[in-house]
Amino acid sequence: MPSANKKVPESVKMKDVAEHAEVSLMTISRVLNTPEKVSPLTLKKIKKAIAELEYVPDLTAGTLSSKKSGFIAALVPFLNSSPLTDTIRALAAHLREHRYQLLLGSTNYSIQQEEALLIELLGRRPEAIVLTGSMHTSTSKRLLKRSGIPVVEIWDLPSAPIDLAVGYSNHDSGYQITQNLIDKGYQSIAYGITSSIDDRGEQRLQGYLSAVKDSGLPDFVERLGDPPVQMEHGIQAISNLLARDRKPEALICVSDTMAAGAIFECQRRKIRIPQEMAIAGFGDFEMARHLVPALTTVRVSGQEIGAKTAELILKRLQNRHVENLIVTVGSIFIERETT
Known about the structure:
Strands 2-1-3-4-5-11 form a six-stranded parallel β-sheet. It is an alpha/beta fold. About 40% of the residues lie in helices and about 15% in strands.
């Protein structure tokens, strides 16, 4: 964190670090380029100053005369989600038409890893950055705001975006699918989810909890390890639910992948779907419509999110007016045979 005794400049430069550490610019340059030539004591002192000022070295200095890197960075948790893959594909295609390349980084659902990646990326001066979700460290937010480049948060609708956002309400999507099952007459509905580090899944869980509470129904929450979501999580969800004294009539899974595992486990145990256990997912992955029985789910257009994200970035880079800082992409309940 920045020192309480020294004011951090809005845009931290090498000379600010030199003044903060009370050393010369040449010494700072040595630390950044040839740290082995600097004494341990001086190295420690300057690294402390860099951390306190949250200084991001310009790794492109001296290599790009135009100061234009030509790339946009996108940080994603994993690329195991069909809609998210659609987003990246559409984003890359639209950017490529304007001679921008897309660089991907994986956060592994960790906001600390996201912060570390951002520090590395900002040093290479991307033209814009795309983040998945709206949960970030305070340091990440400060660095991004200070960078002055377009920042788009996707697949969520943050109440206070860093800059721009394209997504949908995960809470409302969770509420929507739960309410649809309640309207069909299901009175005991379980929800399968991984750990709380999946912030978007957690918001959908809160939507589920709101829906069952509003209808005066009990909640059944099954937590099944860390993301990324796997079919194994759905298999485990069914096993856990069947071990309960009171077995629910339906299971909503945080993603179609988990739901597929739940379907396979029900079939293995000869549990009839939906007569004995209704199952719903999220995402409308390609497999959802081909499963037997076909999976009830919620569809969000990953392609539309990617296209609208590219549109916002290009407008900013071309100094055109951006009318809406937050762009909403709706979600659609898709009823199929599993409910």
